[in-house]
Design brief:
- This protein is of the alpha+beta class and 499 residues long.
- The chain has 5 domains: 54 residues; 50 residues; 179 residues, Ribonuclease H-like superfamily/Ribonuclease H (Nucleotidyltransferase, domain 5), CATH 3.30.420; 64 residues, no CATH class; 79 residues, no CATH class.
- It has 17 helices and 18 strands.
- The strands form 6 sheets. A 5-stranded mixed sheet has the order 5-4-1-7-10, sandwiched between helices. Strands 13-16-17-18 form a 4-stranded antiparallel sheet, with no helix packed on it. Strands 3-2-11 form a 3-stranded mixed sheet.
- α12 packs across α14 and α15 crosses α16.
- The chain is elongated.
Amino acid sequence: MSRITRRQYEKLLWEWEKTGKVEITAMKAGIDRKTARKYLNGGTYPELPAERNWRTREDPFSEDWAEIERELERDPGLEAVTLFALVSERNPGRYAPGQLRTLQRRIRAWKSQHGPEKEIWFPQQHKPGEILETDWTDMNRLEIRISGEFFPHKLCHSVLTYSNWEGVSLCRTESLLSLRCQLKKFIGELGKIPRYHRTDHSSTATHALRRGRSARDFNEGYLDLMSAFGMTPTVIERAKPQENGDIESANGHIKRRIDQELRLRGDRDFGTRAEYEAFLGEIVRKTNLSRRERLEEELRTMRPCDVGRISGYEEITARVTRNGIIRVRGRVYSVPSRLVGETILARLTEDTVEVWCGGILQTRRDRNGADDGPEGLDYRDIIGNLVKKPGAFRNYRYREALFPNAAFTGFYERLRREHPEDRADRIYLAVLNRAACEGEENILTALELLGNDAPFSLGALEDLLASRTQTYPKLEDYRPDPGEYDILVDAACFCEAQA
């Protein structure tokens, strides 16, 4: 009978109790099938060789171990690779690269006896209806595209710690506004709120009390939001992400599930943002299916909450400068020139800025990012004034906003090649003004019809637009059926007329 170690025999008995199959038991114990059957059929504890606890060869690091041990006592964080390089450099030719593994085992054994204490994580017993954790996670690595263009975004992610019921919403930044929208959506679906809301020390929830100090306190806006929802705010300790373990773990799980579903889908491009949001919603719905029972336990202990009274936007007042712009959250946005000098109310959502004045919606702008720049300007708001002052175009601070797309940029370059710069500016502004009135597509179509054979003439464009507006649709001849008028004649009169 082949000899096996005591550890193999114990593993053999353990696996046999679980499976009752010799083939699987022998494979997991690492012994031959016939040998496993003999030991199992023997019914008695065999005499097994004792576990070896002595070295079978000379320790190659015996001469330098005292030095290595002193270094480890000084700094237990030193790795075997570092110490191996140190003794190899001091003793050229003594050690071969293959002996690094031996040193790693030796140092591991030393640390198990003399190493420093390690941090222990204490699993917590969650209570139903107690804590809702929220965090943001970046999604750019998944390379999502909307209509062929890369879509940079984050997920605002919330999890109930007892049931692990989760919900997500798209956002651009880790802002108080994105948190407001997420909580309104998540709690609105449940209809109830837990007792506490927990986050990390992000700038959305907390701020430093003094510059350079580690102490932090809740932001006033965050406290107002928690008060509106009726939850008590809590935060984890700084640099202790494990205290927010449920949401930290859920962030990784949700991204892996999304990635796997994208691989099954075979495409990471979505036609619209709404289509992408529906895709995410279906993933979350399927994930939550197995958590319904524990969620019901939570709901029985949670308080009702009506999120209808909580707005999904943030309001900021701003004054329209004489430049026809407002500055909101560090970005500039153009508004109709009739509002110059007025104080307006800006309603911010994650995607738009609505401009209200006198209780009337004046205009709406997209929020494409957080950087200051011309993206918030619409040439339609300023082109009427700029046509009257064409000299301001050349050095206008937000000049890039006056080129709606690459076609208009190419057209302006063509004008500069065909005309003096001043005249090219005047012609371009006139064409852009017509685009604001007629529509960009109509103007680009007209420019394409004119072609590039001759220098561009503003008069030729006006003539082409005039001729196109004077065309009328061809109408088909209408010949009514006399029988259709019979319903207008009373049946009795019709019979009398026949008589």
